TrEMBL record:
<feature type="signal peptide">
    <location>
        <begin position="1"/>
        <end position="39"/>
    </location>
</feature>
<dbReference type="InterPro" id="IPR031158">
    <property type="entry name" value="GH10_AS"/>
</dbReference>
<keyword id="KW-0624">Polysaccharide degradation</keyword>
<keyword id="KW-0732">Signal</keyword>
<dbReference type="InterPro" id="IPR044846">
    <property type="entry name" value="GH10"/>
</dbReference>
<dbReference type="InterPro" id="IPR006311">
    <property type="entry name" value="TAT_signal"/>
</dbReference>
<keyword id="KW-0858">Xylan degradation</keyword>
<feature type="domain" description="GH10">
    <location>
        <begin position="37"/>
        <end position="337"/>
    </location>
</feature>
<dbReference type="GO" id="GO:0045493">
    <property type="term" value="P:xylan catabolic process"/>
</dbReference>
<protein>
    <recommendedName>
        <fullName>Beta-xylanase</fullName>
        <ecNumber>3.2.1.8</ecNumber>
    </recommendedName>
</protein>
<dbReference type="Pfam" id="PF00331">
    <property type="entry name" value="Glyco_hydro_10"/>
</dbReference>
<keyword id="KW-0378">Hydrolase</keyword>
<feature type="active site" description="Nucleophile">
    <location>
        <position position="271"/>
    </location>
</feature>
<dbReference type="InterPro" id="IPR017853">
    <property type="entry name" value="GH"/>
</dbReference>
<dbReference type="GO" id="GO:0031176">
    <property type="term" value="F:endo-1,4-beta-xylanase activity"/>
</dbReference>
<dbReference type="InterPro" id="IPR001000">
    <property type="entry name" value="GH10_dom"/>
</dbReference>
<comment type="similarity">
    <text>Belongs to the glycosyl hydrolase 10 (cellulase F) family.</text>
</comment>
Length: 341
């Protein structure tokens, strides 16, 4: 299957128009609220002023908790499913799709005018058992069938998909997952082509962690983007997960984002969290937010959860709201950085 340039152009125009429209609305909002500062009192509204989103990873089972859902709808303008759109959740048996959790999040987002990021179509982790036993062409067919089923179901409703997640090692080599060992190097581009066919309007991202500067892993991903562009493989964006701790070395964080942006892909901060507390934690959040705001093609930031109490690394208290949904020092640092841009 070859890339369709007309589809890709439409996606780019659609994305550009959305940002322009959001910036226009933000400008109207700034005029409307001049003097009250209301438009810049939440993370989502502040990010929207520069045409960006500020999102959170969400688990549908917590939405019944008032603090959780109120904080989500008041503070954020983008949602990503923390687990509900992954392969094990959406296709637990071959060809038997289950979209209940993801559909719930999409409906909530649409009700509140939020974007939805898609996470993630193909990953070595959280594969259902039936996939883990497949080899060769059967695994390839399962992968493309899964992408067609999930991206097709959500067609037109996802701003950007993490098509492939975490396919590289720290030294820049390919991770020796079942996908890599069974399918060889071509599986990543095959996944992107399948996603493009299933949802021509979604931006298509490669997403990874430990890419928080110019290093062997981020350079391998950079080289892959260059190669994809040269050969017409559809790719629109790169996600930087940004799981950090206090004292993180961010000396080349912005430079790294910028070198990808200079290739003509969007960059997104996709899973931000920072282990730590107080001003040390706030400093890291501020630096990441400023870096995104300084890069024109950094389209938004997603934090990997709302409250420390439900974080995957909860004992490190890495998020912007504590267990009682109280704003932390890091929250104010992020809000200030968004408003300063
Ligand atoms: O759903 C079951 C539940 O039925 C059961 O009672 C419970 C018992 O432990 O487990 C539940 O599943 C867990 C699921 O989170 C939902 O809480 C899984 O065991 C657990 O493995 C899973 O962890 C998720 C992890 O990805 C899996 O690798 C985390 O929530 C999620 O935050 C994390 O997210 C990843 C990104 O997708 C990719 N980047 C790294 C990031 C952090 O690991």
């Amino acid at each position: 299957m070859t890339d369709n340039p007309v589809r890709r152009l439409r996606r780019r125009i659609t994305a550009a128009a959305a940002v322009t429209a959001a910036a226009g609305l933000a400008a109207v909002g700034a005029l409307t609220f001049a003097g009250s500062a209301s438009a810049a009192d939440t993370l989502g509204a502040s990010a929207a002023e520069s045409g960006r989103y500020f999102g959170a990873a969400i688990a549908p089972n917590f939405l019944g908790e008032e603090g959780y859902s109120n904080t989500l709808t008041s503070e954020f303008n983008s949602i990503v499913a923390e687990n509900a759109m992954k392969w094990d959740a959406t296709e637990p048996s071959r060809g038997q799709f289950s979209f209940s959790g993801g559909d719930q999040l999409v409906a909530l987002a649409q009700e509140h005018g939020m974007e939805v990021r898609g996470h993630t179509l193909v990953w070595h982790a959280q594969q259902p058992g039936w996939v883990q036993g497949l080899a060769g062409q059967a695994l390839h067919d399962a992968m493309t069938g899964h992408i067609a089923g999930v991206a097709g179901h959500y067609q037109g409703q996802i701003s950007s998909w993490d098509v492939v997640n975490e396919a590289f090692e720290g030294d820049g080599s390919r991770r020796q997952s079942n996908l890599q060992t069974q399918l060889g190097d071509g599986w990543i581009e095959d996944a992107f082509r399948a996603a493009d066919a299933a949802d021509p309007d979604a931006k298509l991202c490669y997403n990874d962690y430990s890419t928080d500067g110019i290093n062997a892993k981020s350079t391998a991903i950079y080289d892959m983007v260059v190669d994809f562009q040269a050969r017409g493989v559809p790719i629109d964006c790169v996600g930087f997960q940004t799981h950090l701790s206090t004292g993180a070395d961010l000396s080349s964080y912005q430079e790294n984002l910028q070198r990808f942006a200079d290739l003509g892909v969007d960059v997104e901060i996709t899973e931000l969290d920072v282990g730590g507390s107080g001003s040390a934690q706030a400093d890291v959040y501020r630096a990441v937010t400023e870096a995104c705001m300084n890069v024109d093609r950094c389209t938004g930031i997603t934090v990997w959860g709302i409250t420390d109490k439900y974080s995957w690394r909860g004992e490190e208290t890495p998020l912007l709201f504590d267990g009682n949904y109280q704003k932390k020092e890091a929250y104010q640092a992020v809000l200030d950085a968004l408003n300063a841009a």
